[in-house]
Design a protein that fits this description.
This protein is 21% helix and 36% strand. The strands form three sheets. The protein has a seven-stranded mixed β-sheet, with no helix packed on it. A five-stranded mixed β-sheet has the order 7-9-11-13-14, with no helix packed on it. By secondary structure, it is an alpha/beta fold. The chain has five helices and 16 strands. Strand 5 and strand 6 form a beta hairpin.
Length: 223
């Protein structure tokens, strides 16, 4: 393996330091071996993951997370950080994570995502704060943002279109549900800014619909 993968654990997280030059397929094999060997140490801990030492595409990141879950009993809560201040932001976010144990209620994150921060999780997530421009939230299930969304939100990231995104103020730079992408209408620079109202984005007839949340919408809403 030639030490191509190094694991460093700290409070609520594991940093994976990877060789930047070996082929990706070879790297995946080494990661699989590393986590199988460490399984008795980590057991079924709930952790966040930080990927270091190598530039990765979003698909490569997801593939690595799949390899980790297939070769260990870890519960991967989220993937954190992608910039030079990754470790500092990673530790700061960990101090604010409050996850529920009940699988039916999803996870909670308290705080605003800013300065390029990102969260990736297998579960539904409720964010008590804003998701600012340049930041992103990826969930295999549903996303609820009790604040403004001006960054990127991707629900159903495991490939299912039967999910939704809710935000108290929804102005995303990018929004996806499953394999569908939403393209918001371009506002005129002369248009008056409308009052923020809670909105829900969901799929209907092969498209993403974004509507204000009303009693009628919720009563007719099915997935």
């Amino acid at each position: 393996m030639k030490n191509s993968v190094i694991l460093k654990s700290f409070s609520s997280g594991i940093s994976i330091i990877m060789d930047s030059e070996i082929p990706f397929d070879e790297l995946l094999e080494d990661i699989a071996v590393k986590f199988r060997e460490a399984d008795n140490f980590f057991k079924n801990a709930s952790v966040a993951i930080s990927l270091e030492g190598r530039i990765l595409s979003e698909q490569e990141e997801r593939t690595i997370l799949d390899v980790i879950t297939q070769n260990s009993r870890l519960n991967v809560l989220c993937l954190m950080g992608r910039d030079e201040d990754k470790n500092i932001k990673f530790l700061g976010i960990q101090n604010n994570l409050n996850f529920q144990k009940d699988e039916n209620c999803g996870q909670f994150y308290r705080g605003t995502l800013k300065d390029g921060q990102s969260i990736e999780t297998e579960h539904s997530i409720i964010i008590l704060g804003d998701v600012c421009e340049g930041c992103s939230v990826y969930s295999a299930k549903d996303i609820v943002i009790l604040g403004s969304l001006t960054g990127e939100a991707y629900a159903g990231a495991a490939g299912s279109n039967n999910h939704f995104v809710v935000a108290l103020d929804m102005n995303p730079e990018k929004l996806r549900i499953g394999d569908l992408e939403y393209f918001p209408p371009k506002a005129s620079k002369w248009a008056l800014k409308s009052k923020a109202v809670p909105k829900i984005a969901y799929t209907y007839n092969g498209n993403i619909q974004v509507e204000s949340i009303t009693k009628d919408v919720l009563e007719s809403f099915t997935l």
